[in-house]
Amino acid sequence: MSRLSYVFISFGLTLLLLQSCTTVQVGRKTVYSSEGKREHNTRPSTGKNSKKVTTEYRSSTSVVSSGSEVQTRDEIVLTALKYAGMEYRTGGKNPETGFDCSGFTSFVYERIGIPLASSSSLQSQQGRKKSINNLEPGDLVFFGQGKSISHVAIVTGRNVDDLEVIHSTTSGGVKVDNITRSEYWNSRTLFGVDVISR
């Protein structure tokens, strides 16, 4: 099957799922409402720092949500992915300066009309707390040790074995990580927060 045929079939299935608001089992994942591939430039297309990013995004969850909630979750993830490759900057809150972790999450959420506090510890007090096993794309996940919160990320996708997030890290800037398979992040994962569901 050609790549173009795959794109048309994926688009048709996406429209069907969005209209019916149902889940479809695909292998070991439950795919919900949208599946797509985005190509975007995270930097201007000229110069040696020009960087093209291709990102696969799959919204997957076993929880059936309302159509508008699913759309909001998709918007959060797709908006966040546009900034993959941006530099880390302490106190950074926008693309012009770079982002720190909470500056990145608050920027993304505010772009779709959900205000978040400016620090990760304050963001952890917004919305409804969720266990790691119940997180959905668009939810926030918090990291730290004990009761001390030191980092926040946005869930981009999950399946039975993996939880992927996008976040602004001191070592790599804004990037997607599989936190389940990272000893560093997995050992520091605390809980999640849902600020989307009503």
For the structure shown, list the relevant keywords:
single chain; 198 residues; alpha+beta; three-stranded antiparallel beta sheet; 11 strands; 27% helix; disordered N terminus
Characterization of the model:
The structure is a single chain. The chain has 198 residues and is an alpha+beta fold. The protein is built from 5 helices and 11 strands; from the N terminus they run αβββαββααβββββαβ. The protein has helices at residues 3-20, 67-81, 101-111, 120-123, 183-188; strands at residues 23-26, 29-41, 52-60, 93-94, 98-99, 128-130, 140-145, 148-158, 163-169, 173-178, 189-194. A hairpin with a 3-residue loop joins strand 4 (93-94) and strand 5 (98-99). The longest helix is centred in the N-terminal third of the chain and has 18 residues, at 3-20. The protein is globular, with a radius of gyration of 17 Å.
* Total count of helical runs of at least 4 residues: 5
The percent range for strand residues is: 25-35%
Q: Describe the biggest sheet?
A: 6 strands, antiparallel
**SS-based class:** alpha+beta
Helix content: 25-40%
Total strands: 11
Q: How far is it from the N-terminal to the C-terminal residue, by CA?
A: 41 Å
Strand order of the largest sheet: 6-11-7-8-9-10
Calculate Rg over CA atoms. Answer: 17 Å
Q: Note the overall shape.
A: globular
Helix-strand string:
HEEEHEEHHEEEEEHE
Task: Average the pLDDT over all residues and give the rounded result.
Answer: 75
pLDDT < 50 stretches: 3-65
